[in-house]
TrEMBL record:
It comes from Micromonospora fulviviridis. Signal peptide: none annotated. This is SDR family oxidoreductase. Residues 1-30 are annotated as: Disordered. InterPro entries: NAD(P)-bd_dom_sf, SDR_fam. Pfam families: adh_short_C2. The lineage of its organism: Bacteria, Bacillati, Actinomycetota, Actinomycetes, Micromonosporales.
């Protein structure tokens, strides 16, 4: 990854597994529930979870963060 250059920032969000609408008939509710139990919080991530991280990174509060990739995956990789 290249640098952001003087005065620039390059924070990155890496959203993990998320779920959206499950009423399309394509999703297996039992399978989704089984995977959700693998997350420390017991639920799938949502697009809003990832959006909150991006919003923080773009805010003044996240202004000191640069050149980092921040996982937003609810601890799934650590819990497996």
């Amino acid at each position: 990854m290249g640098g952001a250059g003087p005065g620039g920032r390059a924070p990155n969000a890496a959203p993990g597994r998320t779920t959206v609408r499950t009423d399309t008939g394509d999703a297996d509710p039992d399978g989704l529930a089984a995977v959700a139990r693998l997350f420390p919080g017991g639920r799938w991530g949502t697009p809003e979870d990832a959006a909150r991280l991006v919003r923080f990174l773009c805010s003044a509060d996240g202004g000191w963060i640069t050149g980092q990739v921040i996982d937003s995956e609810g601890g799934f990789q650590r819990a497996r």
